[in-house]
Amino acid sequence: MFTVVVLRRRFESVVREMSNTLAKTGRSGVLNTALDFSCTVTDSSFQSLSAGQGLPVHTGAIHLIPQAVAEKFGDDMGPGDCFVNNSSYHGNTHCADFTLCSPVYHQGELVFYSIARAHFSDMGFPTPDTYAPLARDYYEEGLMLPCIRIQRAGRDVPEVIDICKANIRAPDIFYGDYLATLGAVRTGERRVLEICDEFGVDVVKQFLCEYQDYAEAMASEAIGGLPSGTVSKEFFHDSVLPEYPDGIPVRATLTVDPDARRIEIDLRDNVDNLPLGINMNEATVLACCATAIMNILGPDVPRCAGALRRVHVLMREGSAIGKPKFPAATCASTTNLAHILIEHIQSMFAELGEGLGTGYGTIGHPASAPVVSGSDSRFGERPFVNQIMLGYWGGPAASGHDGWLTYGSGTTQGMLWQSSVEVVEAQQPLLVEKLEIRADSFGPGEWIGGGGASCVLRARADTLRFTCNSGARRFPPPGTAGGEPGAPNLAWKRSADGSLTELPIFFDVVIAPGEKLVSEGCGGGGYGPPMRRDATRVLKDVRAELISVECARKTYGVAVMRGRDGYEIDIDATRNLRSPSKQQVG
Amino acid sequence: MSQAASAPFHIAADVGGTFTDLVLRDARDRTFLFKSLTTPADLSEGIFNGLALMAEAIGMSREEMLAAANGFACGTTAATNAILEGKTARTALFCTEGFRDILSIRTGGRHGFSIQEDYPEPYIPREMTFGVRERLNAEGAIETAFDAEQARAQLASCAAGRPEAVAVAFLWSHINPAHELQFAALLEDLLPGVPYSLSHQVNPTIGEYKRTSATAIDASLKPVLRQQIAALEERLALNGFRGQPTFVCSNGGRTSSREITQKPVYLCLSGPSTAPAAAVRLAARAGIAHGNVITIDIGGTSLDASIARKGRVAMHREGSIAGHVFGVPSIDVATVGSGGGSIAWVDAGGMLRVGPESAGSFPGPACYGRGGERATLTDANLVRGLLDPATFADGQMTLSLDKARDAIGRDVAGPLGISVDEGAALIAAVAEQDMVAAIEELAIKRGFDPREFLLVSGGGAGGLHAARLARELGMREVLFPHAASVLCAYGTATGDIKFDFSVSRATSSKAFDFAAVRTALAALHAEGTAFLERMDVEPARRTLRFTVDAHYQGQVSHLSVDLDGDLATKDDLARLTAAFHAEHQRSYAVQAPDDTIEFVAWNVEAIGRTRDATHTTGARTTAIRPIVAERHRSVFDHATVTAVEIGLIASDSLTPGDTFTGPTLVEDRLTSIFIPERCIATVTQDRDLLVAIDA
User: Fold this and answer.
1) What is the predicted ipTM?
2) Domain limits, chain B
3) Chain A environment of B637 (Cβ under 8 Å)
C-alpha cells in the first residue's frame, strides 16, 4: 500500500504543477482570472487518474481525447507529438475548449497521455463569442480542429499555427494561450517520465490498476448505502424555437441498485438535435452524469475513471442530450442544457430518500457574465475580446446547506474565479455601476438557494459588443423536496434616455457610450419547504436587506416588526402564519 | 539557580496560544530560554510572569533587568486569535454605493467542491455595510462626485448601530484617495474618537476584495489591540523599561508599538513569521552559502512550511485568517493538518488515511492515556520505537505503549490485515506523504525545485520526520537547529526591523512614464526613511529594498522584480525588462521577449538590520570525530517490512565536529531526531545537526 500512497501523491502533484503553469502563464482573462481550464494525465488505456483542481465538465469524460488520438493516428505518432482537438465529433467538450494531448513514451513504450484543456477567449466564431447558442449547425461555429497534429517531435507544425492565427481574433493572445496550454502538457509529460524512471514502469502500471480498483471500491461502498429505486423526471430550458413553444425538455430516468452497486442514467427519451448551439455531446453528457453522481457519492471517492465503472449512462445518437448527429451545432454544449442536466440528476435523488440531492443552480450565464469585445481608445484602440465573470452566482441548496453564492452552474461548481471589478475596468473600457446580491432572488426553502447578482455595466467612451447565452427566465432554477425556484434571469439594455429594452435569453447587443447593460441574475433553487426554515435565519436575511419583509411573511411565514435595535421576530404572528391550517389556506 | 548575564539585554517574547516563550540575549550573545502560560485576557500578564522567571534566573529584580534592557520584542497571536474567536470590534464598512457585497463575493474559486458545504459569512455583516455615493474610474478621474449629504445620512444610520471602529474602502481609491479623505473628514466630525482605517493607506493595491478585506480587518483590530498594546507599554515603562517595545509583523520584521497600532492588520500571523528568517540565518551560520531554505514546523495538529530563495523569504499578499484575506505582505506559510495528533483511519476502499481530524493535545493520542482512544501519528512513532515512553516532553508525561498498540491494532492493523508494527510504519509513511505534498505545493507555485533547497526543521514533532521528508523531496541536506523547539522566539530576538510601503502607479514598457515612476519612488524613499528614523535605526544599518510588481499585458497574477539602481534612462528600463523576462522564464519556464510588460505597483521594504542579520556566511564544520552509538533499539522498517537496529545517542553528549551515520535516533530533552539509513549527521559549531541525505 505504501507505493500506492506515494504514487497517488506524485500524480496529484503532476496535475497541480500542470495547472499552475497554465494559470500563471495564460494571457486571456478566462484562463488567468477565471481559471477556466483543466489538466490531467491518463494511462495508455485512457483511464484518468486525478481530476485535481479542474472543472467538472472538463474532466468528467477526458478519456475521449486520448481515445480519439489513438483511433485516428494509431502507430503514426511518436515522442514529442502533440494533438489539438476542439471537435465535439471527436470527443471534445465544445469548440472554445482548446484541448491539447500528447502521448508520453517511456523507453519507446506509450505509457501515458498528458492533457490540458483550456477555454480560449476566441476561436474564430462568426461573431465575437465563444458559445454561439444560436448557431444553427456546425458551420456556424468557430474554427474546427478535429484532432490534428499541432506539434511533431516537440516542434510546432507551422501550417496549423498559421491556420489558427488566420482565423482567430487577437492572434497574439491566442498564441500566448496556446503556449501556456502546451507548457502544461509538456510539464505533465516531463514529470510522469521522472516517476517512471524512479519507480520503474511496471510498478507504476501496477499502481494504476490498484488505484482504479480502489476508486471503484470506494464508489461501490457509497452506492451500496443509497436507497434503491427508479425515478423519471422532466424539466425545461427556455425555448427560442417556435417548434418548442412550451420549452425544451430535459428528461432522465435514474435507477439506483444498491445491491448490485450500480447506477443507471437513461437519457434516450430526449428530443432530437436542435438547430441551436446548445446541443450536448458525448463528452459533456458523460461529464455531467459523472459530476452529479460524484456529488451524491461524496468527496471521499476519488474522482477518477475507476469510480465511474459502476455508473452506466444510456444515450442516443442524434439527441440534443446525447451524441450529436452531424452537422448539429454543439458550441454551447458545456452550458445551458448541461447546467440543467447535472442538478436534474441530483434532484432525482431527493425522491429516493429524504435529505438526498439538491435544488438546481444557475442555468446559462447571466448577462453580467458576457463575452465583451470592442476596441479601447484608452490604449490606442487596442482590440479586446474576453469573457468577464461577474455575478455568475446562484448555487443550489442541499439538505442542511444553503446554496453556495459564487457557484455559477453545475458544470463549474464554484471552481471558476470571479473577476475583480477593478481588473475588469482596467482591462475593458467599461464601468461597473453596481454588483450586489439581488434581494429576494434566493430560491426559497428550508435551505435557500444562493443569490443571483444585480449588475449594471456602462460603456465609457467606446462602443462595446456583448454576447451572452443565458436561460432560466421562463424556467428559473427549480427547488427540490418542497423547495421553490430562484428568481428568473432578466436582462435589459438601458438607453441614454433611461428607457429599458428587454433582451432575449441569447443576445448579441451593442452598447454605445452612455448606454448600459442591466442584469438581474437568477438565484439557485431551494431545498425543503420554506415554511420549515429556521425563523432566525429568515430574520438575519431581512436585517441584511437580502429578503424583504413581505417575502419573509408570505413565503417563509415569518413576521418581523421594527424593534428598538432594528427588526425582530413577531413570535405570535409567526406562529399563526406557520400553523398548519394557515399553510393549507395560504 | 541563577546565572550571570551581562547587560545590556535584549528580551524577546513569543506569545502563543498556550505558552509564552521568552528569550533573553545578553551582551555576549548568550541566549536564555523561558516558558510561561499565556494569559489570553491580558497579553501582558503572561509576559510579566515570564519576566519574573527570567529575572530570577539571572539573579536580578524584574525592574533592574528591564532597566538594563535596550530592546523588548514581542510576537503575538493576539490579532489572529481575536479574528478566529470573533473578539474584534463591532466594525462598520463604508464602500462605494452599489458594492455592499464585496466581502461576501471575495474572489470566487474554491478548494475542491462538495454539495455539503456552507458558504462563509462576510467579515463585516451586510447590515453594518453602507454604500456611499461617489465613483472614480480606472484612471482615478471622478465619474460621480462625492455626495457629502448622502454620506452624512449613511453615517447617521451607521451611528445608530454604535460602531466601535470604521473601515472605508472605495473603488479605485489606491489611484486617487480624494474621496476616502473627504469621507474621513466627515467621520472625524460625526463619529469623533471612533478609530477608522482607509483602504488607500492600509493596502493600496488593485483588487477591491483584498483592499476592502485588509481595511475591514485593520479597523476591527484597532480598539482591541490599541488597548492591549498600550497596557503592555505602560506596564513595561512602570517596571523600568526605557525603550520602545517592538512587535513582530506579518512580514517577518519588527516595528514599534506606535506604528503597529496605526496598522494593526500587520499583526496578523505575527507569531510564527520570524521562524523562516531565523532558519535562513542559522543555515548561513552553519555554512550553507546558497540561502535556499525550506523551513518546516511540525506541531501537534499541523505542519507549517515556508520557503526562502537566495536568503529571501517568500512573501505574498494572499495571507488569510479563517478565510478572510488580510492582504498586506506576509510570509507565505503553507499549512496542512498533519501533526502528532493526526488520527489514522481506514476508508471504505481499504486505504489508510491520516488526518485531517486531530486528537490535538487533549484528549490527545491514545498513548497519552488522557481518554484519547484513536490511533494517531504519535502513537505510531511510539510503537515504531522512536519515542521513549519515560522521557517524553522532558518527562512531564509517561506514554502508554499498550494503549498505542491497542489503538493501532483496532483502527489500522486489524482492518488492513497487517501487524501492529507494520501498521505503525504505514501511518508514519502516509502522514509523511501528506506533508511532502504541502511542501511541494509551496515550492511548485513559485516555480522552485525543492531539490535545490536545504530543509530546516523546527518545532517539537519535526525531528522524527524531517530527514525522511527531505529524502522523498529529493533534498540533499537537513539542518536541525539546536534551538529548534523555540525557533520563533529565537527569530524574534534576532530579527530585523521592517515595514512595507507601496504605491500603485501603472505604466508599461511600451510607454514608460519615467516622471511618474520617479515621483512614486521618491515618495516611497521618503516614507521608508521616515519610518527607519522613527525606529531610531542608525543610517549604516538602513536598507531600502525596492521592487516592482509586473506582468505581461493581459496577465493578472504578477511577479515581483527587484529594482537595482536608478530608473531614469532607456538603458535602466531595458535592464528592468530583461530582469522581468528572466524571472518569468525561471518561474514558468517560458518568456515572451517581444511582449509589453505592465508595471502595476511599486514597493519598498524599509529594513533596519540587526547585529545578527549582518554577519556573513560561516564556515562549514568539518567532521572530525566519527562516533558510534553505544545503545541500540529495534524498530520496524516499512520499506523492508522487517525490524532493524538503530543507534541511540543523547544530544547533550554531542560536541561540535562529532559525526555519525544513520539509522540513529538522537534523543533530546524536548525532542527526538531521527537520522535514517544512508545519512550522515555532523554536529556544527552552534551544536545544530547538519544531515546529508544519501551522501
Assistant:
1) 0.94
2) 9-83+234-267, 88-225, 342-431, 497-609
3) none
